[in-house]
Design a protein that fits this description.
The protein has 12 helices and 14 strands. It has 464 residues and is of the alpha/beta class. The strands form 3 sheets. Strands 5-4-6-7-8-11-12-13-14 form a 9-stranded mixed β-sheet, with helices on both faces. The longest helix has 20 residues. The protein is globular and about 65 Å long.
């Protein structure tokens, strides 16, 4: 089970409980919810999309406020995490006019409002992240690099954007490898061997966490020389990768850290009796404590009530780095405000309001606000319909004893020696020499790339 994804799902549940307790948002209206597990598979995502459209039996619902017969009129969807799965679901949901707000699907392809008119997101497109990654690589003078990507829409579109930006900046790419987690192990071994034989010591990885984990497990069998990893947001925000020593010092862009008051207590307020109400929570409880709830798992000892969820240390209970989790919160709130705008006035809501089955066209020329006419989903966007938010430059660190350290936030700027550096919270400046190098790697392309004078701080695009 992916405990981090479970935290995302329960963050939506927490947000809905919070909304239902408010008097200024949807007064007199109680929101219900369904939680489905797509298992990161397109076929399961398509099945879920049709279930939402047809109102089939619920998978997870611990509220008695909504009848199952009312499930046929699902007004909106939070998700999916994956870009490929979001595309598959959007093509189905769009036919029924059901808006979809993703918290993590970043593929630039989803910005096409003609193909995905019902798709919205609370996270910037990879187009901006790719440009920012190329800029930071150039900033440090790393002009001879390697690249790996997941063989998915996320990896292929993201890397294509990065390679174009890198080419424009005079960055040379020694190799660009692609693989997917379900391919034969020999494919991952081949990619690992390419990295080992490479002369590039900087590697840009536009990959899902599942693919990177497979690649790192293969690389540690015969570790290559020290590498400087440049990571996409799919894995750079996950501190679990620091168990691989070669990831120490990895840098990339991620969503800014946030605080959600009350969320941690909500996540920890879980008993065996509550866990039994949901197959997902039952699996979580049994996986976390290696026991069986009322004989639901064969061969395991029975849970005896001594299990302490507050003593757990896993991605579900870790609320120290609420980044994507906060976007789930925002996506859920956006839908609630949209529904409020449709069925409520200043003082009350129309409890008999019905949502139409078709979604009128989205106005692409209304200026910096893009509005969904059906559910009034409004976000602060650019003229292209892209969400506007900030990205933080992050570095995965290790403590001197080799244990995982915190994700550090960096600000970029010039130094007196006209050399790129990052400024950490301790007031010190760290140049590219601190990233495994004694100097700037030189390009071995046909023409030597001249390093630009760094007279002013790096300026990233407004979205990245």
């Amino acid at each position: 089970m992916n405990f981090r994804e479970l935290r995302f799902a329960r963050a939506m549940e927490f947000t809905i409980h919070e909304i239902n307790n408010r008097t200024d948002l949807l007064p007199g209206i109680t929101l219900g919810y369904q939680i489905h597990d797509t298992c990161f598979e397109v076929l399961m995502a398509m099945k879920v999309a049709f279930q939402y459209a047809n109102g089939m039996e619920l998978i997870f619902n611990d509220t008695d406020s909504c009848s199952k017969s009312a499930a046929a009129a699902v007004p909106a969807l939070v998700g999916e995490t994956s870009s490929t799965l979001s595309m598959s679901m959007s093509r189905v949901l769009g036919l029924f006019g059901i808006p979809q707000v993703s918290h993590k699907a970043t593929c630039a392809c989803l910005s096409n409002k003609y193909q995905f008119p019902n798709f919205f997101r609370a996270i910037p497109s990879d187009h901006h992240q790719a440009a920012a990654l190329a800029t930071i690589v150039k900033r440090f003078g790393w002009t001879w690099i390697g690249a790996v990507r997941s063989d998915t829409d996320y990896g292929n579109y993201g890397m294509a954007s990065f390679l174009k930006a890198a080419q424009d900046l005079g960055i040379c790419v020694e190799y660009s490898e692609v693989f997917y987690r379900t391919q034969p192990r020999s494919k991952v071994e081949r990619v690992a061997n390419v990295i080992r034989r490479s002369t590039a010591r900087v590697i840009v990885a536009f990959v899902h966490d599942s693919e990177l984990r497979l690649l790192l497990e293969e690389l540690v069998k015969q570790p290559p020389p020290p590498l400087q990893w440049i990571g996409s947001e799919a894995w750079i925000m996950d501190p679990s990768f620091l168990r691989f020593n070669m990831c120490a010092g990895a840098i990339g862009f991620g969503i800014p850290r946030s605080v959600i008051p009350g969320l941690r207590e909500f996540l920890l307020d879980l008993s065996p009796e509550q866990a039994l109400k949901s197959p997902l929570l039952t699996e979580f409880w049994e996986s976390s404590f290696s026991c069986s709830l009322k004989g639901s798992s064969e061969g395991a000892r029975e849970c005896d009530g001594s299990e302490d969820i507050r003593a757990l240390q896993n991605p579900y209970t870790d609320t120290s780095q609420l980044r994507i989790t906060n976007l789930v919160y925002k996506a859920t709130c956006a839908i609630a405000h949209a529904i409020h705008g449709v069925i409520c006035n200043d003082t009350q809501c129309d409890k008999s309001a019905k949502f139409t089955s078709r979604q009128p066209p989205i106005n692409h020329h209304s200026g910096p606000k893009t509005e969904n006419m059906q559910t009034n989903i409004t976000m602060e966007t650019s003229l292209l319909g892209e969400i506007i938010t900030a990205l933080s430059l992050l570095q995965q660190t290790q403590h001197p004893m080799g244990k995982p350290g915190p994700l550090l936030h960096h600000g970029l700027g010039p130094s007196n020696k006209q050399e790129a550096y990052v400024e950490l919270g301790d007031g010190n400046q760290y140049s590219s020499h601190h990233f495994y190098f004694t100097g700037h790697p030189r390009s071995v392309c046909g023409l030597e790339v001249v390093k630009e004078e760094l007279d002013s701080p790096t300026t990233f695009p407004a979205h990245g």
